């Protein structure tokens, strides 16, 4: 593992020369998409104040497992580099404290149900746009605030179900299956990040902030590549694909002698090289497999031929030989195996800072690199410090 940590200043705020140094963010969001977005902003130098309800972000309790701090490991994954203050925004005096934070803020991120901020007199068009004209206001919701589903609550797995993702994930035996990671929440966090950064660039030109809206619904539908396009052009509803690709073969999981591996081949040259590596040169000239289209049409036959051959090979050595030949292949690793890869350490994607352990910074900038900030804060750990800054 790499020992990688961002420098910290007295009081716990991260010191960074990152691309977003000097950008001030007020984070009202909870759970995953919003906190992930603001953590990335913090990783790249933004000063993020996490405003939590008196009971704290729900994610603090989504365990076991729990970290040494007492907070759930889930919370630890999404809130490093931030300072925390607890505010009860149902109270007028606490809303005044929030308005004080917004005086110097560049960005506000919230993921309340639509209408919540308006009930508190804090809606963007209602109050904040005029009072804080340079503020970039990012709203993350399940479905938006209007339309047939407007204003309704949304969670990752429900959106996976509603937006067709589960219908193509799984096998005939398993039936439709939720993806094992909260992919809709995760991508929504990155979508919000992209919107915020675009709004900040536009502000340099116009001098004014704007509202950024992202929804889990829109994000989930945007993930339907290539399945939506396949449907538009064929009229055939995409089906459960297991580990296979609907448009490419062989692009699937196969069993080697000592365990599963994944093989990805996109063109005829790669397929011919693969056949040479496994000692089956004749497969490349087989009329059933001479093109990607024919390989897709005859994928059951192709699978039988490949799996018969792969039983003779250990997966680690075979994958190494295939990659050296320009063919994408890799063992199907467990999470511990994935994090223990030498390349994960080389890339700094497993980090340790004191008792904190987490994933590294996936966005690399050559001149203004990001850095992992201090460990996720205890609830309202910086209240005295933050209130003092408002005086």
Q: What does this protein look like?
A:
There is one protein chain. The chain has 17 helices and eleven strands. It folds into two domains: 24-224 and 362-389, 3-Layer(aba) Sandwich (Rossmann fold), CATH 3.40.50.10540; 251-333, formyl-coa transferase, domain 3, CATH 3.30.1540. With 391 residues, the chain is of the alpha/beta class. The protein has helices at residues 33-43, 73-76, 92-102, 116-119, 124-131, 156-162, 183-206, 216-222, 227-234, 268-277, 282-285, 292-297, 299-310, 315-324, 335-339, 342-346, 383-390; strands at 24-27, 47-52, 82-86, 107-110, 136-141, 211-215, 251-256, 259-264, 328-331, 350-353, 356-359. It is elongated. Residues 370-391 are annotated as: Disordered.
Query: pLDDT under 50 segments (min length 5)?
Result: 1-16
Estimate the strand proportion. Answer: 5-15%
Give average pLDDT, whole number.
94
CATH topology name of the largest domain, in short, is: Rossmann fold
- Total number of helical segments? 17
Short description:
With 391 residues, the protein is α/β, with parallel strands linked by helices. The protein has two domains: 24-224 and 362-389, 3-Layer(aba) Sandwich (Rossmann fold), CATH 3.40.50.10540; 251-333, formyl-coa transferase, domain 3 (2-Layer Sandwich), CATH 3.30.1540. The chain contains 17 helices and eleven strands.
């Amino acid at each position: 593992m790499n020992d990688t940590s961002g420098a910290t200043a007295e009081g716990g705020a991260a010191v960074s020369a990152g691309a977003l140094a000097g950008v001030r963010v007020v984070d009202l969001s909870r759970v995953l998409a919003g906190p992930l977005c603001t953590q990335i902003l913090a990783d790249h130098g933004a000063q993020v104040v996490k405003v939590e309800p008196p009971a704290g972000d729900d994610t603090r309790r989504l365990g076991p497992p729990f970290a040494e701090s007492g907070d759930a490991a889930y919370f630890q994954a999404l809130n490093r580099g931030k300072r925390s203050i607890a505010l009860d925004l149902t109270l007028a005096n606490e809303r005044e404290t929030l308005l004080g934070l917004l005086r110097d803020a560049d960005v506000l991120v919230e993921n309340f149900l639509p209408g919540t901020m308006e009930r508190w007199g804090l809606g963007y068009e209602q109050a904040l746009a005029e009072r804080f004209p340079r503020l970039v206001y990012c709203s993350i919701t399940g479905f938006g605030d209007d339309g047939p589903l407007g204003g309704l609550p949304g969670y990752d797995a429900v959106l996976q179900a509603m937006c067709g993702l589960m219908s193509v994930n799984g096998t005939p035996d398993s039936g439709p299956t939720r993806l094992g990671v909260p992919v809709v929440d995760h991508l929504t966090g990155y979508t919000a990040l992209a919107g915020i950064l675009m709004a900040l660039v536009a502000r340099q030109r116009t001098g004014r902030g704007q509202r950024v809206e992202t929804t889990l619904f829109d994000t989930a539908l945007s993930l339907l590549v290539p399945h939506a396009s396949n449907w538009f052009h064929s009229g055939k509803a995409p089906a459960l694909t297991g580990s296979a690709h609907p448009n490419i073969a062989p692009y699937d999981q196969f069993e080697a002698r000592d365990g599963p591996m994944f093989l990805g081949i996109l063109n005829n040259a790669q397929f011919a090289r693969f056949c040479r590596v496994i000692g089956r040169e004749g497969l490349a000239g087989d009329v059933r497999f001479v093109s990607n289209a024919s390989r897709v049409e005859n994928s059951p036959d192709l699978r039988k031929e490949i799996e018969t051959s792969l039983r003779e090979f250990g997966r680690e050595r075979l994958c190494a030989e295939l990659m050296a030949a320009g063919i994408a292949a890799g063992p199907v690793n467990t999470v511990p195996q994935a994090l223990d890869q030498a390349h994960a350490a080389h890339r700094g994607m497993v980090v340790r800072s004191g008792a904190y352990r987490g994933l590294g910074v996936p966005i690399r900038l050559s001149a203004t690199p990001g850095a992992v900030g201090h460990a996720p804060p205890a609830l309202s750990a910086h209240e005295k410090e933050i209130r003092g800054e408002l005086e």
